[in-house]
Write a structure and sequence with these properties.
single chain; alpha+beta; Glutamine Phosphoribosylpyrophosphate, subunit 1, domain 1; Rossmann fold; 2 domains; 7-stranded antiparallel beta sheet; 6-stranded antiparallel beta sheet; 17 helices; elongated; disordered N terminus
Length: about 500
């Protein structure tokens, strides 16, 4: 049975990855890179380094990983300095979408030692044909150590009959389908790869003359690295001593390299940090434009006895879009004032729930509090990026009403979510989505949430706003668009739990 996560009613992304090749502080850079990518996964974290042993004339891998945040796993500098020596490293922050969240064996990076040496893997995304591949490999005698779809890649590489390690990797990636941004660490190279549709972001940078790779460019800012470019959809980059020397890593390509990209549009709406560039574009700029588009479609004018409409965000993911909403409203001649009406507690840990209290209600109360003096007696516009189940939104509206505003108008910078995702977003089952439960009737959603009005940004307007330079295309399957690739079956990340 699929487990419902009560701590968050937002779509969650499938992990953050970071890698570096040839730097004397590889593990430390990876630690800070993962720290910057903490928002992409909070269940577990790990780092693998490749250390050359001159006495034995070979490399060996060092690994530290565990459950919890980056600061939980790497508690002090000695952990990184003493246990993770080496000039190259990859790291991973986990949020599970395939494989049990509670199984410690699912913590990445994964490592194997096979006929051609050591190999480690960090994966962001979700494979849509992992069931058939897993069954095939099991029938051929493969023993799996985890319930994660990512492990399949290592088995495919190890079982390849190709003699060249790069060709082994390429043949393995040709067999998998779905979303993957991958880092593979070998004894002599860092291999960086992205699926042909470019579902999830993956960026290439440089620090002190050494290549680095990350899910988002905010990780480069943390270590003062320079963003070079995105890894292209379908591209496999091999960074080794020769590539580092020439500053031109060797590029290989997967089949379907001419397939149209289908970037996950939710990276702009919610997942990525606003200070990042994803898909070659500034997340901050795109979110401001989404907020402006929302104000164009659904402005709220103040009453005749009021100076301005009060607009507040659901912090923190909606802050930037709210700025866009306010500026565009004022541009249209509608007096609008940005206020801080909700305060978010960033230090919410485990809380004790009394039997008579609803767990969802207490989660909301421990995470948010209202500024009553800002809200009382006012017509307010509440801006959020998305609504998934609607349960948290419902409790949030209830909390706002306790501050006694005159009216609450809900504005969402994305269309209603009506489909599950199979490419790395953790949505609940389709039946749990509020838009599906309400038969995609916005008026029914308004009544369930208990607000005076609600407006979702239209799909057409959203697609007008997002950047289209370089022929960019986006996956909008969760909003009712077509699934861009075939899917074996409905994915349940716990159906392989051991």
């Amino acid at each position: 049975m699929k487990k419902t996560r009560l701590d968050n009613d937002k779509p969650r992304c499938a992990c953050g990855i970071f890698g570096v090749f040839g730097h004397p502080q590889a593990s430390l850079l990876t630690y800070y890179g993962l720290h910057a990518l903490q928002h992409r996964g909070q269940e577990a974290s790990g780092i693998v380094t490749s250390e050359y042993d001159a006495g034995k004339e070979r490399s060996h891998f060092n690994i530290v990983k565990g459950m919890g945040l980056v600061t939980d796993v790497f508690k002090d500098y000695r952990t990184v300095e003493d246990q993770l020596k080496g000039m190259s490293a990859i790291g991973h922050n986990r949020y599970s979408t395939a494989g049990s969240a509670n199984n410690r064996s699912n913590i990445q990076p994964f490592t194997v030692n096979y006929r051609d040496g050591n190999l480690a893997l960090a994966h962001n995304g979700n494979l849509t044909n992992f069931r058939s591949l897993r069954t095939e490999l099991q029938e051929e005698g493969t023993i799996f150590q985890t319930t994660s779809d990512s492990e399949i890649v290592l088995h495919l590489v190890a079982r390849s009959r190709e003699k060249n390690q790069i060709e082994q990797v390429r043949r393995a990636l040709e067999r998998i389908e779905g979303a993957f941004s991958l880092l593979l660490l070998t004894d002599t190279a860092l291999i960086v790869a992205r699926d042909s549709y470019g579902f999830r972001p993956l960026a290439l940078g440089m620090k002190d003359g050494c290549f680095v790779a990350a899910s988002e460019t905010c990780a480069f800012d943390m270590i003062d690295a320079t963003y070079i470019r995105d890894v292209a959809p379908g591209e496999i980059l091999v960074i080794d001593k020769e590539g580092a020397k020439t500053t031109k890593p060797q590029s290989y390509w997967l089949p379907k390299k001419d397939a149209k990209p289908h970037h996950c549009i939710f990276e702009f709406i919610y997942f990525s940090r606003p200070d990042s560039q994803v898909f070659g574009e500034s997340v901050d700029k795109v979110r401001r434009k989404l907020g402006k588009a929302l104000a164009q479609e659904a402005p709220i004018a103040p009453d005749s006895n009021e100076k301005s409409t009060i607009v507040i965000s659901v912090p923190d993911s909606s802050n930037t879009a709210t700025l866009g909403y306010v500026s565009e409203s004022n541009k249209q001649g509608i007096p609008t004032k940005l206020e801080i009406g909700l305060i978010r507690n960033h230090y919410v840990g485990r809380t004790f729930i009394q039997p008579e209290q609803g767990e969802r209600e207490m989660k909301v109360r421990t995470k948010y509090n209202t500024v009553k003096g800002v809200l009382k007696g006012k017509k307010i516009v509440l801006v959020d990026d998305s609504i998934v189940r609607g349960t948290t939104s419902k409790q949030l509206v209830k909390l706002l009403k306790e501050a006694e505003p005159k009216e609450i108008h809900f504005r969402i910078t994305s269309p209603p979510i009506v489909n599950s995702c199979h490419w790395g977003m953790d949505f609940p089952s389709k039946e749990e989505l509020i838009a599906v439960r309400c038969n995609e009737d916005v008026e029914n959603i308004r009544k369930e949430l208990g607000v005076d009005s609600i407006h979702y940004l239209s799909l057409e307007k959203m697609l007008e706003v997002v950047p289209k330079g370089g022929g960019k295309n986006y996956c909008t399957a969760c909003f009712g668009g077509k699934y861009p690739t075939p899917v074996e079956s409905i994915s349940d990340k716990n159906d392989l739990e051991l």
